[in-house]
Structure formats: C-alpha cells, structure tokens
Write a structure and sequence with these properties.
The complex is a heterodimer of chains A (318) and B (131). Chain A is an alpha/beta fold and 318 residues long. Chain A has 11 helices and 8 strands. Chain A is 35% helix and 13% strand. In chain B, strand 2 and strand 3 form a beta hairpin. Classes of the chains: A alpha/beta (318), B alpha+beta (131). Chains A and B meet through helix 1, helix 2 and helix 9 of A and helix 1 and helix 2 of B.
C-alpha cells in the first residue's frame, strides 16, 4: 500500500498538479469539475477512471480532445461502474499471476457518474459492483436532474422542483415524488464506506475520499453538484448554493462505515432555513406563490425529520 | 469486422493526452508536461468569456480559496502562492471573485475588453465599514 498523500491545509493542497484539464465544455460555474478536481487531487497514485454518460462525459471527451490526464474509459450510460470493476478484476488477476510490469504502483479505480446514471439507469450495475466487493470507488455527481439532455426528472429530483418532464404550471407544482436515499441503499449492501460530500467542504471531502482509498472494498460517494443551468442560478453563485445546501441540512454531510456505523461529519453552526435554499434557485420559484407555500413548510419538516433520524442513528450506532 | 478476433480489433477512438512516455504525472506541473494535440489543455475557451477576472497581488493572502473552487483549473498556484489567472481556460464564471475573502477583493470581474493596467491602477480601496 502506497503512502496516503498528506493534506493538512489548503496551501499544501494547492501544490497538487491537476490531472483534469481546462477547456472542457462544462458550463461556466459547473460544480462537476470542482468535485472531480478535489477527488483526483486527493491522491498521487495512478488512476483508472471511467465516466458514465452525462454532462461530465460529453463535455470532457469531445473529439479530438480529452480533458483527462489518466487512463479514462467511457462505454455506456449504465456501465461506467462495471467498466472500472472489470479493470480492477483484471488488474488483480494479472497481479496474482505476477504479470504486472510495475507491481509496486497502486492504481486507484474510480468511476464517475451523474445522478441519472446512478440513481436510475446504472442502479443495477452499481449494486452489482458493491455486492461483488471490487476495490473501487463510485462517485455520484448529484445535480438532481438529467442536465445533459435538457433537464428531465430523475429519481434524485426533489419534491417541488420544476423540470422539463415534470414542469410546474397551472395544474402542477412540478416533481411530486421524493428523492431516493441512495447513500443508505448503498450502505445496506454492507460496503466498507459510503458517504455524502459537498464541494464547498473541501477538507471533509478530501478526508472522506482518502478514507475511501484506504479501505479494501467498494466505496460509494454521493457529491452534491449545484447545476447552474438546471437549478437556474447565476454561475458565480455555485459555491453559495453549495454552502446553502449543506448549512440548511438539505444535504447533510455524513458517512456510513461498514453499512451500520453512521457519523455526521459536519454540523453547521447556524442552520439556515430551507426557505433560503429554495429561494436561491429558479427551479423552486413557483413554490413562493400563495397556493404552494405549504410545500415549503413540508420541505422544512422533511429536512428536520431526516436530520433527527441521522442524529438518532449516530447516537445508537446501528 | 465480423471475422476479426479481439487481437486484430482496431482501437476505435483512443486519444493520448501526452506525447512520449509518462512516468509521474501527479508530480509534474502543467508547464513541464508534454501535452499532445489531443489534450484539451492545448485548446482555449477564452471566447466564452463576457467578463474576465483581474488579479491584484497587493491584497492577496494566498488562501487558495480561488484555486480549490475554480472549476476550470485556471487559477495558477505555484509553491503555495497565487500567481495569476490562466486566460486560455477561464470561462469567466466569477466564482473566484465570490470566494475571495480579502478586503478589498484581490480578484474582480471586469468586461472582457477592459485594460488590465488601467483597472489595477484604480483598484478599490479598503472598505472600512465592512467586516
């Protein structure tokens, strides 16, 4: 096992050489590349990467350019995780046969996917990877919508959000189904580590990613990725939205070790009302009309209940 | 294609990021890397910008918030110091200006055609009321 990269503070972190290049075609202010950078810079080891179809894949591999400085593969919408799992299985087989040219190198296997490719389309494949126990990491860039194809709803889209296939209008307030709790589902596989991260809490994120690299087995990471195009806010406010999402506890930051030991890793000093988080985004604009005000109250109740649930689980250690 | 085995199969689209042999990419800075013509590093998205960030060294405390939160790898940080903005890859989103904690800000957005020296000469002074 190679030594873990030491990152004490941001100045030390800034000496990392990025392995993800600019002039990709992601929107200005896209949080995807911030998350990718924080994940890749958390290690100095070699990388074997994949991306499932989604914004990240189409924007970073536009022929004749590639934005990746490591081996990177894209196959289909659903099987980015299995592509990496296959590479990992092959690597292990070659190591066991003693046929690796540089056996001392310790590559990290990471697959990136959007919420569409993880929550809906690639769900079965990821579940398989987690169940088979590959030594890999799956990172979800959760922007709660199929942003690449024009903003269709995914099973990650939260209640009240207006998307192109569940639009808000005269008869509807948009999405009516609640978001799937993917971190818990994945933790239920009994995997060594699953966690929820946010790009604005870079230190928490790097710590979790490094923990994920250090364990032997599949790791699931759900990263909040505010989408400037589909959440409808100004590109410069990406970090503000990320701050709001963690401080309003809409995206609580926690980790689940071995499928049962839950730790809350970030407790905001001042908890922001969910209303502020909703008000900052154009996709929730209609909720502030009088007839839909009750939904904001329900939102707050749901978020509070989830936070209480997490606290109880942390306390009970189950 | 039907009669070909795996060994004869032609690679569809494999792009090599670098020319020649690469050993330790995580330990090599951008300026020392041998990028091939297929790396997006050699391309530019400068024409996406409507506004550009201008960096004033005088107030910078090298906190590196701009470096970590830049989505386009456009903040150049070397030896724990913030050096400047990579104008070939900056898309002008303005996140760096938003996260800059100094008073006055060390990075500000200006229209693309603004002259850097003129703007640096008339950089805003410290705002005493703001804390």
């Amino acid at each position: 096992m190679s030594e873990m990269k030491k990152i004490k503070n941001l100045k030390e972190f800034s000496t990392s050489a990025d392995r993800f290049e600019g002039a990709n075609l992601l929107c200005p202010g896209c949080a995807h590349s911030i998350i990718v950078r924080e994940v890749l810079n958390a290690t100095n080891d070699d990388l074997v990467l994949s991306a499932s179809t989604g914004c990240l894949e189409v924007c970073t591999a536009v022929y004749p350019y590639t934005s990746w400085d490591a081996s990177w593969i894209h196959i289909g919408f659903e099987n980015g995780s299995t592509a990496v799992a296959g590479a990992e299985a092959m690597y292990n087989a070659l190591r066991n046969k003693g046929r690796l040219k540089q056996p001392d190198r310790n590559p990290k296997f990471i697959s990136f996917a959007g919420d569409g490719a993880s929550y809906d389309i690639g769900f079965q494949w990821i579940s398989g990877c987690m169940e088979r126990g590959h030594n890999m990491m799956h990172v979800v860039l959760d922007n709660e919508v199929y942003a690449n194809t024009g903003g269709q709803r995914s099973s990650s889209t939260p209640i009240g959000s207006s998307s192109t296939t569940a639009p808000a209008g005269r008869v509807s307030y948009g999405e009516k189904k609640n978001k799937k709790d993917m971190v818990s589902i994945m933790a239920s596989h009994g995997i060594p580590y699953s966690a929820q991260v946010a790009p604005n809490k870079w230190k928490d994120m790097v710590k979790k990613i490094q923990h994920g690299f250090s364990v032997d087995g599949p790791v699931f990471i759900n990263a909040v990725s505010p989408c400037t195009t589909e959440w409808k806010f100004d590109p410069k406010d990406t970090m503000m939205l990320s701050d709001l999402s963690t401080d309003s506890l809409v995206f609580p930051l926690y980790e689940i070790i071995d499928g049962h030991e839950l730790n809350i890793t970030y407790r905001p000093k001042n908890v922001v009302p969910v209303e502020e988080y909703l008000a900052a985004q154009g996709r929730f604009k209609h909720l502030f009309k009088d007839q839909y005000k009750y939904l904001i109250k329900e939102w707050q109740e749901r978020v509070d209940a989830k936070w209480a649930y997490l606290n109880r689980r942390e306390e009970a250690r189950v | 294609m039907a009669n070909k085995g795996w060994n004869e199969f032609e690679i569809g689209a494999m792009l090599r990021t670098f020319d020649g042999k690469i050993d330790d990419i995580a330990g090599t800075r951008q300026e020392d890397r041998a990028y091939s013509e297929n790396s997006s590093f050699v391309a530019s998205v400068a024409d996406w910008r409507i506004e550009k960030p201008i960096f004033s060294k005088d107030f910078c405390i090298d906190c590196q918030f701009c470096w970590i939160y830049c989505p386009d790898m456009s903040i150049i940080a070397r030896d724990k110091k913030m050096i400047g903005v990579d104008m070939d890859h900056c898309k002008g989103c303005g996140i760096c200006v938003e996260v800059c904690p100094t008073n006055p800000k060390s990075l500000l957005m200006f229209p693309e055609q603004a002259d850097e020296e003129t703007e640096l000469a008339q950089w805003p002074a410290k705002d005493e009321e703001k804390k």
